[in-house]
Every structure is written in C-alpha cells, then in structure tokens.
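ARCHIVE CARD
CATEGORY: sequence design from structure
SOURCE FIELD: tokenized fold
FIELD CONTENT:
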C-alpha cells in the first residue's frame, strides 16, 4: 500500500483540496436536520414567520455550499485519481520491461495485460471513490454521532445495539465476497488470454479453419467469467437489504423509545425526527465504508 500511495505524491495538493471540500460538504449536510428541527419546533409551532424564513434561508445557503463543495471534491478527486493511474500504469510498464523470461511465464502475457489495463482502471476508480466515500463516511459518522449524542444521549443508546449488529453483518458479507472476487479476477485473466491468443494468431486459425473451436473456447472462458461475477455479485447485493433492515429496526426503536419521551415531555417531536435523520446518516456512512 505504501508503494501504491507513493504514486499519489505528485497530486498531494489535489488530495488536500478534495478533503477540505468534503469536510465542508459533510458539515453542511449534518447541520440540516437540526435546522429543520428548529423550524418545526421553534418556528411553525409558535407561528414565528421571521424565524422560519431566516432558518430556511440558512438551510438554502448550506445546501448551495454543499453543492459547490461536492463539485469541488469530485473535480479534484478525479484529477488525483487519473494522475495516480497514469503514474501507476507507467511504473508497471517500466517494471515489466525488467522481467526475465521466467517472470513473464509466471505471470502470463494475458495476466500482465490485465494488470496494465483493467486493474489499473479499477485502482483509479477506487482512488477517486476513496477521496469521496472513504473520507466522507468517517467524517459523516463522527459528526452525525456527535450531533445525535448532543441532541439526546439516552436515545443514542439504540446505536449501541444497532451499530455492532450492522458491522458484524457487513463483515460477514465482505469476508464471503473477497474470495469470490479473486476467482473473478482469475477468470478475467483466462478470458483475456483467450482473446489475445486468438487475435495474435488469427491467420493461423483461419488457415486451419478453427473458427468454431475458437468460438467454443471463448464461450467457455466468457461463461466462466460470467458465473464468477454473478457469484460475487449475489453476495454483495445483500449489503443493501441488510442496511435497510437495520435502518428500519433503528427507526422503529427510536420511535418506540423516543415516543415515550415525547409523551412525557422530555423530547420534542421535531427533535425525534432530526434524531432519526442522524441515525440514517450514521448507518449510511457505515454502508459507504463497506462498499
């Protein structure tokens, strides 16, 4: 990882700007539920129109700032990600030039081609998404947790049960999916090898009238990749249902316990709605990390 991260060094400025924009975006989003709670609790219920208009204008301002921050983060994340991929691709190509014949035989030409093309693209996308989701998720988790505890520490006990349950479920999904993605990578190498061999020796194939054999060979490799991909995706798709189940359980729990506090006058209904929004932000940040 240290070697990979070194390719980001020339784009350190873009990374720092992307992080700053993401911080601004998260702050703007986290304050929205509290402002909405103030509008309902202190504005609508008391009929204070100037207060409603003032806080509403503030919400619009924060929303516009979040849009600008999101655009800035996306722009600088893309710049750093694309530059990182270009440097990594160049480094890989230079490394391959130093390989012995044994090294090339061990990796296979198709495997090396996959590393230089498909794998570098995947790392580029991962780098871009990391500067967005992997930074956004921890920041969102921390800020939303602080706001939830600040609003109602007793009600936040629900998170003590919900978060470990979600983490265990996501950990199981990730642990199960990783070997399947390794199999998918091997099938990708095999498919690329079949294509490269066919295209390189296309004249020989035509000379010996082996088109049907090559079609069957390609179909076999293609079907194997499709099957491996589906097996991996069939595990990953459980991520969203598990998340929604936990979210719904958390919402029901907050309504159950928070409703009692509202009846006893310990919590305003608007604050309970804001608290539910913070729970959504906390759980969504954990899902971003799992993705």
């Amino acid at each position: 990882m240290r070697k990979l991260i070194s390719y980001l060094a020339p784009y350190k400025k873009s990374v720092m700007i992307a992080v700053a924009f993401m911080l601004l975006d998260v702050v703007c989003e986290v304050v929205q539920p509290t402002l909405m709670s103030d509008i309902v609790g202190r504005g609508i219920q008391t009929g204070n129109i100037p207060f409603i208009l003032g806080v509403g204008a503030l919400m619009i301002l924060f929303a516009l700032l979040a849009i600008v921050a999101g655009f800035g983060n996306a722009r600088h994340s893309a710049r750093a990600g694309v530059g990182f991929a270009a440097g990594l691709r160049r480094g890989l190509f230079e490394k391959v030039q130093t390989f012995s014949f044994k090294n090339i035989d061990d990796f296979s030409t198709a495997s090396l081609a996959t590393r230089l093309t498909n794998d570098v693209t995947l790392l580029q996308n991962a780098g871009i998404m990391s500067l967005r989701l992997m930074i956004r998720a921890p920041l969102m988790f921390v800020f939303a947790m602080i706001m939830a505890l600040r609003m109602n520490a007793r009600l936040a006990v629900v998170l003590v049960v919900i978060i470990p349950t979600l983490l265990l479920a996501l950990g199981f999904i990730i642990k199960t999916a990783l070997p399947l993605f390794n199999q998918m990578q091997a099938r990708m190498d095999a498919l690329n090898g079949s294509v490269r061999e066919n295209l390189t020796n296309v004249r020989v194939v035509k000379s010996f009238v082996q088109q049907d054999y090559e079609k069957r060979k390609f179909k076999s490799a293609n079907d194997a990749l499709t099957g491996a991909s589906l097996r991996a995706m069939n595990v990953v798709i459980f991520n969203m249902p598990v998340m929604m189940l936990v979210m719904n359980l958390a919402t029901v729990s907050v309504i159950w316990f928070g409703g009692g506090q509202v009846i006893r006058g310990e919590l305003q209904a608007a604050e309970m709605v804001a608290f539910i929004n913070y729970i959504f932000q906390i759980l969504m940040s954990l899902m971003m990390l799992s993705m």
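CARD ANNOTATION: The mean pLDDT is 87. The domain at 2-290 is CATH 1.20.1560.10 (ABC transporter transmembrane region fold).
SHELF: design records, drawer C
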